[in-house]
């Protein structure tokens, strides 16, 4: 474990335990099979970054009520719902080092359990009786679906621009992380300026999170990552390192890349050559630079709050988001 | 067109036009493909019974605001979302006489567009800023998913009891229709007794609706029904006429039925023999009797309201629910 991860783990140990317990308590399925199917993915070692950001944001705004534990499950349930549907949509085979749910229970059950988790999340949101919170949660859900649909439509499109990519990742990943921070502040009854600050912090973290995820597909290995490396490209998912490299490679390399991407059945050697190209054109470096810029902005926001264990944790999460290895 | 349908159509003509316009206005997709995919099913001649019940319930409670048009789309969007996912789950091929969405756009897009419609519905509900309404809508959504999951788990189980069947249909169909009536009353600010009465009316209509639907699979024909007749049984979906007949057939017929149901690849002759058995054991008659009992109770509730065009329409809908041919 890296030093950063170790320090962060110590800081959030108790919160993570609370989150695990709350996820277990609030699933409340009428049908036991839902617990089994949903639980397979929910309790498979997710990092809980999203519910954690929700808790920390509320705490930073002075919120001390126990309800935050239950509330934070909204964020993880929404996240799990989209993962379940994503895996069906992408026909994935492993996730977090385990076979995906639909390979065990079939796509039908998996689709319906995903629906249940979406509904469960919105039901818990409704319990707050806070219209603003409910609206934010509903908007996040709507945005995530649209982001996924945009991504699906653009699959295999080698003309995908950086702007379109940013639009997709903000919708499919960014809004949920942003909303986790924002709803924490709303729940705490924070003034609008504070709510906006945390929302903006979440916005930056969301973008870093997805860029880091996309980078890992070209810089990690299958065992550490818990899913097949190169999977994005095999599915025709063009991410920032590829988009940048396509744009900055010379004509010959670009033509070769287009062939490899369109073909999809690339060999390991071809994939290695692609990664080399990403390094040579500066694609990997560029992605890190974009992410680091967002980390910097996220940290500046947190520095406007009085220093505390919570601000320290939020600063550390900003760094960890890019520098994780899975 | 039957006399009942003709009369009913005249009574609700304007409302149906308003519903069509509202569905079109409130889909609001960020991605145009969502409109195309969702619209394929939404605008394929649904009967709009659910949003209509919502409108009529609100009106019966004195609600006159235009917002009901937008609000009623929640109910139809939720309904459409479950149909889209159902068709993927059941691997259906036609619905309302048209090829199902996933046969045109593929299962991935269809799953995601279904998600979008769920989210869109909950987003519109959130706009009311009425915590009670939002809770009811969230609970309906949760129940529907669970009903679908229960149905899926019980597929092909020849020991399914009438009680289990009733539990499934109430969750997957009943709650939405009940909720359509109940939220109409809540939106109108009706007293709790009135809200409960309309909720109960919706409960009865919901059960009649599903029993009628299940009967049609054995009493209609493919052209009128807009989907393959006998499809329920082919999918292993045991409905009330089958459950009753299994229970009341003699040992020999029962054994034959079990074989046909388990086998699924029954011939047209076998299917006809099955329908004959349903008539002989009184299965069809029993289902109609159960439904008629619920219709009677639904009408008794409406008769407690001062007579008006709206009560007349709600009475007629109760009859139409069972006596429709598609």
Question: TL;DR of this structure?
Answer:
With 326 residues, the first copy, chain A, is mainly α. Chain A has 15 helices and 2 strands.
Keywords:
homodimer, 326 residues, mainly alpha, Farnesyl Diphosphate Synthase, two-stranded antiparallel ribbon, 2 strands
Explain what you see.
- 2 copies of one chain form a homodimer.
- With 326 residues, chain A is mainly α.
- Chain A has a single domain, classed as Orthogonal Bundle (Farnesyl Diphosphate Synthase).
- Helix content of chain A is 77%, strand content 1%.
- Chain A contains 15 helices and 2 strands.
- The first copy, chain A, has helices at residues 3-25, 32-42, 49-60, 67-90, 101-127, 131-153, 162-187, 192-219, 222-225, 231-234, 240-248, 251-263, 268-280, 283-302, 309-323, and strands at residues 94-95, 98-99.
- A two-stranded antiparallel sheet of chain A has the order 1-2.
- In chain A, a hairpin with a 2-residue loop joins strand 1 (94-95) and strand 2.
- The longest helix of chain A is centred in the middle third of the chain and has 28 residues, at 192-219.
- At the A-B interface, helix 4, helix 5 and helix 6 of A face helix 4, helix 5 and helix 6 of B.
> Can you give the helix content of chain A as a percent range?
over 70%
Kindly estimate the percentage of residues of chain A that lie in beta strands according to DSSP: under 5%
Q: Which residue ranges of chain A are poorly predicted, with pLDDT under 50 across at least 5 consecutive positions? A: none
Q: What characterizes the major β-sheet of chain A?
A: 2 strands, antiparallel
> How many separate domains of chain A?
1
The CATH superfamily label of chain A reads: Farnesyl Diphosphate Synthase
Count of separate DSSP helical elements of chain A: 15
Number of strands of chain A: 2
CATH level 1 class label of chain A: Mainly Alpha
């Amino acid at each position: 474990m890296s030093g950063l991860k170790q320090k962060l783990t110590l800081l959030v140990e108790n919160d993570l335990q609370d989150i695990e317990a709350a996820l277990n308590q609030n699933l409340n399925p009428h049908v036991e099979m839902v617990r089994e199917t949903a639980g397979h993915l929910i309790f498979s070692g997710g990092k809980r970054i999203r519910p954690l950001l929700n808790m920390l944001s509320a705490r930073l705004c002075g919120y001390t009520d126990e309800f935050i534990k239950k509330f934070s499950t909204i964020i993880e349930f929404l996240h799990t719902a989209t993962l379940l549907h994503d895996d069906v949509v992408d026909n994935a085979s492993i996730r977090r080092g385990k076979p995906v749910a639909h390979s065990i229970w079939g796509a039908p059950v998996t689709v319906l359990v995903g629906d249940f988790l979406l509904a469960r999340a919105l039901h818990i949101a409704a319990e707050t009786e806070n219209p603003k919170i409910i609206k934010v949660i509903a908007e996040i859900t709507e945005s995530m679906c649209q982001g996924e649909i945009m991504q699906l439509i653009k699959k295999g499109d080698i003309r995908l621009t950086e702007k379109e990519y940013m639009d997709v990742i903000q919708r499919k990943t960014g809004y949920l992380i942003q909303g986790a921070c924002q709803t924490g502040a709303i729940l705490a009854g924070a003034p609008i300026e504070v709510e906006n600050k945390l929302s903006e912090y979440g916005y930056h973290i969301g973008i870093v999170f997805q860029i880091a995820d996309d980078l890992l597909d070209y810089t990690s290995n299958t065992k550490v990552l818990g899913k097949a490396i190169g999977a994005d490209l095999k599915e025709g998912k063009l991410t920032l390192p590829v988009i940048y490299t396509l744009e900055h490679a010379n004509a010959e390399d670009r033509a070769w890349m287009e062939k490899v991407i369109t073909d999809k059945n690339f060999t390991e050697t071809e994939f290695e050559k692609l990664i080399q190209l990403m390094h040579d054109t500066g694609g990997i470096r560029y992605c890190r630079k974009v992410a680091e810029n967002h980390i910097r902005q996220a940290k500046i926001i947190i520095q406007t709050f009085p220093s505390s264990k919570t601000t320290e944790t939020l600063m550390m999460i900003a760094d960890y988001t890019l520098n994780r290895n899975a």
